[in-house]
Amino acid sequence: MIRATEIHAREAHFHPDDTITLDEMQRHRRRMAMVSDGGIAFLLDLAETVRLRDGDGIGLDDGRILKVKAKAEPLYVVRGQNATHLLTLAWHLGNRHQAAQILEDHLLIRREPVLRAMLEGLKASVIEIDAPFDPEGGAYGGAHVASYDHGDAHAGHEATPHAHD
């Protein structure tokens, strides 16, 4: 079986031979059998667990490179009434160990009706969308420095997803 043991950062210049579309959970792996969008079967076999990001490349041992595409997932856009309120909402989510993507004026979290009820009870605005999810990696490894540079990685988040009220 073809093996993948090398990851190319999305900032690196590479020419992909195919793509692989993965949700956030599938993009946080060390070892797993996978199939590219074009049908290339391979074994992801990394030395340690890696959080793959949209645009990263997976290097196959036959020389081909697969470009990672982040799959849209059912999420909530969470907005506060002001910055302090948003920080309070983030604290409540963190207190419940919920993965969250932190953006300048809102949070993205996975859809969960109990959380929605809690957030709305705390006077948050909660909107359903389908979008790629790239949560913070955590304090004990796995955090990615580029998570604070949301320029091109998150451009159009709210224009592209299908928003529902």
TrEMBL record:
One of its GO terms (cellular component) is cytoplasm. This is Urease accessory protein UreE. InterPro entries: UreE, UreE_C_dom, UreE_N, UreE_N_sf. Keywords: Chaperone, Cytoplasm, Nickel. HAMAP family: UreE. Residues 3-66 form the UreE urease accessory N-terminal domain. It is found in: Cytoplasm. Gene3D superfamilies: Urease metallochaperone UreE, N-terminal domain, UreE, C-terminal domain. One of its GO terms (biological process) is protein folding. One of its GO terms (molecular function) is unfolded protein binding. The lineage of its organism: Bacteria, Pseudomonadati, Pseudomonadota, Alphaproteobacteria, Hyphomicrobiales. Involved in urease metallocenter assembly. Binds nickel. Probably functions as a nickel donor during metallocenter assembly. The keyword Metal-binding does not apply. The keyword Transport does not apply. Belongs to the UreE family. SUPFAM superfamilies: Urease metallochaperone UreE, C-terminal domain, Urease metallochaperone UreE, N-terminal domain.
